[in-house]
């Protein structure tokens, strides 16, 4: 059955509970961006392919563009804006600043959120785990080398560690 | 940053350096504000390249200001000079020149004023961190104090001397990028993040000729558009139609997206596109005007006498800019004034286009440039800016438009395909005797789409002259002829990073490598002998030294010792200088690549392992920024060379997502070592593109070093390389087969997907006769008496317990699933149910006396449920599963009746069911009933548990599972006995067998059945899809004990109980399915990797919210027919009410039939190993797509 468009949904985002009169079938991404005015998650493909819309849901990376807002009531949603504590950036964000790991920055939200999810489940991943975690996060500027350096820094590895595809790649 | 600058931009005391522009209004280059802040103004924009930082660095340097004292305003048409599009890597090299002069000029003005205040000579004063002082004095003046309330406007003087490079303190240092902290925290405002009060959301609906922009059908293809199809949708504001421009405006973004999907619209079929599978043929046949760029030494005379003569052809595919964020703009058109927030790369050019589109003078258009997704050339940013402007003009309110991924992919002006033919030769002494080079580049500047769609400009093919970039080779050939064939686009195309220089250099640098091999010389030494430019030679030597270049006189074919089937390693060299601007153009930075590859002989995969890049860009403003650009160029160009190619199908672009247009992924990223030659005294050269230019040839030359085989057509996909190696060496002895041989189908089996149409065709005459016979024999049973209507009973007569029981039973019986149209009132009927005999429409079972069952007494209801007879005596069709319902006990039927009668009545007359003869003869159902229907309750089986008996009662009775899960005979009756619950068909979906004979790779356990029925998903099998999803949703209202009982009974039907360690078995299946999944070696494999694997790969459940089931475990991939898989790919999945899974997106609008078929066949081969491939998948895909579009038309 098609949900009525005026039905209210509940969302818990960055620690705040919201009750919103939005269509439950609306993509979570649209609701975060347009109704909650959050700029962190970005629309990239609408198909869950590129990762630009990534948020954390109950600590896991989640592709907000494919998730109907009405399907995640009661779950803890965290966006890029919710990572900082007391005005201080999260260690993953700080690593991106330190490594200047941004060109246009449109994919950046997904990179940071995916790596945050990685560090939550594995505080000490190796190079292969980092690359595998980011496999389905796409960047078109080719900032991969800087992003990998930031990821290594955030994961306690040497940022300038080098690794050929022979050891850790596809 | 642009915002910060904007806040202080009021009329105030300040020093302005400006130039009277052609239109009479002044163009601003620099402002020193009263508070001492400085803003530099530049007509170019920051595309994520860091030029906002580098330009601020230049300004701060000339002024000796503190770096954080300076901000840049980039690209706003109201406030920056028109410096043309941000292309050709010219911002630092060209556009920064007047800015630097302006800063130097401001410095002079400030110093002369300070000299008066400090009573010193200007030349004696110094500035440090924005403070002016006389050496030896303690008094320091800020810029604001020096201005002291005065407003000074000075005409830009390009003769102003600037600082000598040796005096630089900021330029040449790696200052951090100014934009990164805000981007990392989510504070940055991209154009996508602009929100205005009262802003609406727009979506465009594009014509079917995606990616084309010339021909008389452009702007003239709309046949009709049905406003009524969207006008009543929630949030609808306006539909805007101007020739072929169609847009919809709604209150919410999701509403606009839905409206765009629902809009009924018809277009004229576009004329066919020339075949682009053979690009060389298409480019050779395309009309062109030859232009000779260089001709000396009489090539035609020299070539025949060459000692070695080579003729080579190089083919470059269409590629995409592929911005990671689809283009977006916000327009506010009010009172004849347009304010536009845009991510354009070309603000002033866009303003010109909008003047034409909207018939406005330039001063009525204010473009505010915001950062956007990187574009590397011309993406749809300008197009969407015009879209938003048209929509805002129509509604008089601000409108935001963001394109979809498919629209951006399909419509962006592509990086053009290119064809280069080279013929050249060596003299007897190994010298470069002759070089005859012809290049074809079908591209222009990508006219604004709205201008074309609305008919504001003519869609005549317009060529451009941009095919000549770096067309002149860097080597000294004794005789040389260089020609470019200027041609109009074939598909919409425009400049893309490296423009034509990248393909041209692919040819130059591949060819010189071939000549070196022919001369039996080392490729680097050979180049050094013939390079014209000593500065280039210096870079080549330095790069070779850095990389540890191994001298060779031919391909080394280095293996890893594992022999045939192993990997081959190679190192390849290429050098190029990127020349931009009108011919002969201006050189940007020089770049040299040494690429190291590993070629897998077995799969054809080329792994790019390491790239050493030498780079000479003259003076570097911000070395870290330069390095960043080099890295980006290396990674992006490697992606283009190894993976990228736009697909065309049905005369349009078929690459509409990241599955059909894959780009580099993290595990493939090579190690990159950058050598930047220090040249602080030389002028800065553009760095935005140069490091891309040598990529293709360096990689091709490395593959040659590894294999001895030349590749001259991109991309170097595994299939292309493997085919090339096989052709050169003969196919290798087949390795262990990747896919098991297809087992022959069992004799006598008929593929179920063929059954309905085939049987119907063959049996129809027989059936008619048979049915007539039954009808005659059973004539005494035909006429059934109506049961008198009653007044609707008062629900108060039933107890709360009875009503609750009835509610549960209605949920169990899924009444509302069939008796409700999608989106309609519950139980009001009208849903179309497809049967082999035609479409049956469900009836209204709300208690409305006239259109529903309000006038039905309980006996009438019970007779219908048990015997299939309507209150008026008519026979019901067994699409209504009364043969199952008949097994229900009296008390339950009464409770169900009570529940239905207590629901709100809905007045609604569903469409009449009208089957074809003979099935339209309802009395024949009496005969059917005599043959197939037994109206009796189930008797408990005493040897079985109470739960089992309860489960059986629910499954076989009101649950009516067999209605879908049992096969039916030619007369539509469920088969019994061994065939009972052995699988059937529902709404075009295959309902799998429930008796343990199904195709699920892991058998169903009681726990799995319980999880599936309770939550809509079993981790071992996947999610409920198709008609089963609403069934599970309905079962939400059934108590846990009953769901468990159903699981107990269903599990008992399995002839063989699942055994062993199921988790281990699941893990084994999944691991086996993914063992040789990489590299992707086919279209299907690439689609899976780009579109499916992110959610369905093994391990995704531990890392990704809403991950899908690994496909090796799913029934759909293992089933006898591909229908369920195809339907799921088309339609996706809705979330389960239980939260067990969220949605899966559908791909009907993304993939072509050919792509879906390739994907489906691939999935079968990889994730259902050991099962026979499906036949005729593409035809099946087309058939299902047609049925879906019929359904949407009927339902819409």
Automatic annotation (TrEMBL), chain A:
One Pfam entry for this protein is Fer2_2
- What CDD domains would the database entry show? fer2 (cd00207)
Extract the SUPFAM superfamilies matched here: 2Fe-2S ferredoxin-like, CO dehydrogenase ISP C-domain like
The UniProt entry, under PROSITE patterns, shows: 2FE2S_FER_1, 2FE2S_FER_2
Stretches of the chain forming a coiled coil according to its record: none
2Fe-2S ferredoxin-type domain location = 7-83
Q: Which UniProt keywords apply?
A: 2Fe-2S, Iron, Iron-sulfur, Metal-binding, Oxidoreductase
Give a yes or no for keyword Metal-binding in this entry: yes
- Statement: the UniProt record of this protein carries the keyword Transmembrane: no
Classification via InterPro entries: 2Fe-2S-bd, 2Fe-2S-bd_dom_sf, 2Fe-2S_ferredoxin-like_sf, 2Fe-2S_ferredoxin-type, 2Fe2S_fd_BS, Beta-grasp_dom_sf, Diverse_Oxidoreductases
The name of this protein is (2Fe-2S)-binding protein
Q: What is the lineage of its organism?
A: Bacteria, Pseudomonadati, Pseudomonadota, Alphaproteobacteria, Hyphomicrobiales
From TrEMBL, chain B:
Keyword annotations for this protein, in alphabetical order, are:
Heme, Iron, Metal-binding
Q: Give the species this sequence originates from.
A: Jiella sonneratiae
Where in this chain does the record put each Cytochrome c domain?
801-904, 946-1054, 1079-1167
Q: Where is the composition biased (Pro residues)?
A: 734-746
Superkingdom of the source species: Bacteria
* Iron keyword on record: yes
Is Secreted given among the entry's keywords?
no
Sorted alphabetically, which Pfam families does this protein's record hold?
Cytochrom_C, Cytochrome_CBB3, MoCoBD_1, MoCoBD_2
What is the protein name given in its UniProt record? Molybdopterin-dependent oxidoreductase
Identify the stretch(es) annotated as Disordered.
Answer: 734-755
> Which InterPro entries does this one have?
Ald_Oxase/Xan_DH_a/b, Ald_Oxase/Xan_DH_a/b_sf, AldOxase/xan_DH_MoCoBD1, AldOxase/xan_DH_MoCoBD2, AldOxase/xan_DH_Mopterin-bd_sf, Cyt_c-like_dom, Cyt_c-like_dom_sf, N-heterocyclic_Hydroxylase
Read off the SMART domains from this record.
Answer: Ald_Xan_dh_C
